Amino acid sequence: INIDKKYRITFLSTETGQELAIRRFQETSIDAEKANIVFGNSTHLWKSIEEDARTWVEANWSRWKEEKPMWLDENVKARIQVEWIPTKEGRNEEKQKRKSVRKKSLAQIMMGDEQKIEEQE
After folding, report:
1. Most buried of 38, 68, 91, 96 (most Cβ within 10 A)?
2. Residues in contact with 44: Cβ distance below 8 Å, sequence separation at least 6, in sequence order
3. Spatial distance between the Cα atoms of 35 and 13, rounded to a whole number of angstroms
4. Across the chain, which distance is largest between two alpha carbons, in Å?
5. Is 84 in contact with 58 (CB distance < 8 Å)?
6. CA distance 85 to 59
7. At what angle do helices 17-27 and 31-39 cross, to 10 degrees?
8. Is the dihedral of CA 18, 20, 22, 25 positive or negative?
9. Of 105, 104, 84, which is closest to residue 94 (Cα–Cα)?
């Protein structure tokens, strides 16, 4: 093998995906990275640090709403549990947004089906 021996350890790890996700969440201070770990992965990878994730969302939600970071798009917001939003007003606002998105999506699906039927006729 043409790999310098001192770099071999970089190609192998006994760390599981869950352990890696937890370690990365705990070590980073970058919100976009934390969001990707929690909201971009399956719940089973971070379930054991759910309270840490909730605390992080609760502590930062107001700032994110004000700053509107690029990573906090509607897809990410939809993955945040409404119960994690710290204020009742914020929870209600997010619930209303999600309801209207679902209604729009359902209408688009139904309109798409109608258009397909019309095209077939």
Report:
1. 38
2. 18
3. 24
4. 68
5. yes
6. 9
7. 150
8. negative
9. 84
| DSSP assignment string, 8-72 | GGGG-----HHHHHHHHHHH---HHHHHHHHHSS-HHHHGGGHHHHHHHHHHHHHHHHHH--TT-
Q: What's the pTM? A: 0.73
Tokens of 60: 């930062």
48 contacts 22 by C-beta, under 8 angstroms = yes
Please, how many CA atoms are within 13 Å of residue 25, restricted to the half-sphere of its CB?
27
What pLDDT, in 10s, does the model give residues 42-97?
999 999 999 999 999 999 999 999 999 999 998 999 999 999 999 999 999 999 98
The whole-angstrom separation of Cα 89 and Cα 71 is 22
Would you state the structure tokens that stand for residue 114, as one six-digit string? 């109608």
